């Protein structure tokens, strides 16, 4: 059966570049901050090649990691075997999670909301599978704060960027989308990656915590 998401060239490049960016670009530290203090059952959408897995604290009972791209899913499964917490890597897309409602204590979205085809539907699915009061941890890039950069991002999103970068859109506003999906924003901070050097269309990031209301 053909995968719903199929970006073999991008997946191959991402698997190499992401490891280097984690090590030299400071992203690994942000992953640790993203996952700190989690416990219970966690669902992670768009797990990619599994770079988050090494940073889950021992208080997590299980991670169910959903990844639609076949090559990245295989790499994630290998990474899951090395993790200190149980990790189950499964196929699926964020817009139709193959999971029971209200089955998870927390959800993780890490550099993935830019790529989902239907952002409101994906966030609705995350809310569905979270128990009331459950947390959504997010680490995402999005639209820049300056008008010039935002204009460039919107132009790229309408032309070549999604084709070159596995469906990624740089001009989305993840914070606004999470709030519009009915989550309560608990805390967040804006980041720039990398912290020094010229800005890129994907430089502006936000890391934070939201909550499904009781």
TrEMBL record:
Top-level lineage group: Bacteria
InterPro entries linked: Methyltransf_11 (IPR013216), SAM-dependent_MTases_sf (IPR029063), Thiol_S-MT (IPR052356)
Molecular function terms, GO-annotated: S-adenosylmethionine-dependent methyltransferase activity
GO biological process: methylation
Record flagged with keyword Signal: no
Keyword match Transferase: yes
Keyword annotations of the record: Methyltransferase, Transferase
Family annotation (CDD domains): AdoMet_MTases (cd02440)
Segments forming domain Methyltransferase type: 43-137
PANTHER family noted in UniProt: METHYLTRANSFERASE LIKE 7A, METHYLTRANSFERASE LIKE 7B
Name this polypeptide is given: Methyltransferase type 11
């Amino acid at each position: 059966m053909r995968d719903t998401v199929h970006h073999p060239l991008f997946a191959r490049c991402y698997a190499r570049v992401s490891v280097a960016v984690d090590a030299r670009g400071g992203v690994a530290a942000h992953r640790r901050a993203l996952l700190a203090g989690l416990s219970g059952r966690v669902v992670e959408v768009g797990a990619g090649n599994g770079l988050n897995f090494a940073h889950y604290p021992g208080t997590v009972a299980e991670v169910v990691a959903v990844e639609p791209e076949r090559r990245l899913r295989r790499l994630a499964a290998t990474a899951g075997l090395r993790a200190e917490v149980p990790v189950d890597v499964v196929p699926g897309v964020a817009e139709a999670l193959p999971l029971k409602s209200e089955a998870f204590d927390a959800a993780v979205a890490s550099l993935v909301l830019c790529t989902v085809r239907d952002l409101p539907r994906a966030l609705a699915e995350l809310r569905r599978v979270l128990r009331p009061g459950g947390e959504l941890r997010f680490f995402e890039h999005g639209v820049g704060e300056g008008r010039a950069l935002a204009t460039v991002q919107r132009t790229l999103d309408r032309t070549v960027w999604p084709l070159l970068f596995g469906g990624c859109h740089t001009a989305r506003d993840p914070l606004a989308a999470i709030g519009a999906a009915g989550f309560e924003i608990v805390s967040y901070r804006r980041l720039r990656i990398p912290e020094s050097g010229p800005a890129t269309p994907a430089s502006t990031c936000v890391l934070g915590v939201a909550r499904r209301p009781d």
